Amino acid sequence: MLRLKEHIMSLVAVFFSLGIGLFLGISLGENILVSNQIEVIERMEIKINSYQRRIKELEEKILSLQKDQESYAMLEDKLYPIILQDILLGHKIAFITHTILPDNVLSFFDISGSELNIYLKEVLEEDFFYNEEFWADYSVLLVSNQLRADLDIEGPYVFTFFIDEEGKLFLQEEKEPISFASLYDCLTFLELIGVNFVN
Asked: Phi and psi dihedrals of 76, rounded to 5?
């Protein structure tokens, strides 16, 4: 009987030890898990705060660049007529085309002081179209790409252009359109057609 009692006591002690071990293991495991999660959350908060600061810096930079762009646009609007005024004075320029030219193109040539003539293919008589002596009076001939094959005139002053659906003019093989609303594009155009705009 005594042995059975000792045996039961030892079993109870073993189970009691196991219970205490499980209890301690679970509570310690939960604490470790919770502390790990807290660390992860704190690291994420630090990263989020860092990203938010970076986003705020970038937003401020964008606002600054937008203000700069507006200032440059205002400056360009003021310089456009001053720089381009009469820059093509004494130059006779012809557009030979099958379509109406966009307003920004006409405005540029008006400000530049050039003598601009626009010839529509439909209006030109065939012999007039091939009259090399007539076209020799011009500083620059700009020929629509659809009509270039019809015009049998060559020379450094003859350029091919086309106008896309949006009214943007492309000169020769240039990949970018020439926006005559931009001072830079106007000066680029003058350089492409060989007009010296530096006095």
From this structure: -65, -40
